[in-house]
Design brief:
Elements (H helix, E strand, L loop, with lengths): L11 H5 L3 E7 L4 E3 L5 E4 L1 E5 L3 E6 L2 E2 L7 E4 L8 E8 L4 E3 L3 E5 L8 E3 L2 E5 L4 E6 L3 H4 L3 E6 L2 E2 L7 E4 L8 E9 L2 E4 L3 E6 L6 E3 L15 E3 L6
């Protein structure tokens, strides 16, 4: 004779026949975050049975955002707006107040490299350096030096130093600045290598002729840049 199936054990709530609609104990708060930085929002709620969660951005459901916390590791411009969280069980439903998420406005420094033009005898030491930015802030900036459009490995500081100038170093140099998901490039500077018997010659940025028009890659938005 077949054994009768065992009855499913009831939860304490079912035994006591206690059901409660969700009640919000903590609601998400407005935040200002850096573009490209992290975002974390949270709600806390009680209810019997335990409630389910669904986050919304500007009234639209966020796919997969179904826990009491909503997190973004690398924010983009589209993450700005009003966030709400719907909390519900089969007894009731409640929606949190809206939490406005906006981005901090960071002042982008003007990167000026000195000198703008240098003609240096082969074999002599030389360096380009960024001016007009306080040293303490310069250390915090995400910089990258380039040579003829290609990145120079390890060149990420406020100076680009040559212990001994060589002919192969002759060309155009720039500094790329990555800030808040955007990239900016300095104006180009030029290094020319002269004969070892020649005298060094340098022209400052103030003395250098101004470009006729901005170069296309001097500024562009690149949210996926990880540098």
């Amino acid at each position: 004779m077949a054994e009768a199936p065992k009855a499913k054990k009831k939860t304490q709530e079912e035994k006591e026949d206690i059901f409660e609609p969700p009640v919000l104990k903590r609601e998400p708060t407005a935040k200002q975050v850096s573009l490209g930085g992290k975002l974390a929002l949270r709600v806390t709620a009680t209810g019997r049975p335990m409630p389910n969660y669904q986050w919304y951005l500007n009234g639209k459901k966020i796919s997969g955002a179904t826990s009491d916390r909503y997190m973004v590791n690398k924010t983009r411009r589209e993450h700005a707006g009003n966030y709400t969280c719907e909390v519900k069980n089969y007894v009731g439903r409640v929606v949190s107040r809206a939490a406005m998420v906006s981005f901090l406005v960071e002042r982008v420094p003007n990167l000026v490299i000195e000198p703008a033009l240098a003609e240096i005898p082969a074999g002599q030491p030389f360096k380009f350096q960024i001016t007009g930015v306080p040293a303490d802030r310069l250390k915090k900036l995400n910089l990258q030096w380039t040579f003829n459009g290609k990145r120079i490995n390890g060149a990420k500081g406020g100076e680009l130093e040559f212990t001994e100038v060589k002919k192969k170093y002759e060309g155009e140099y720039k500094v790329l600045l990555f800030i808040g998901g955007e990239m900016r490039a300095s104006a180009k500077v030029v290094l020319k290598v002269a004969a070892s018997t020649s005298a060094a010659r340098q022209i400052s940025a103030a003395e250098a002729p101004r470009p006729k028009a901005p170069v296309a890659d001097d500024f562009f938005f690149n949210p996926d840049e990880d540098e």
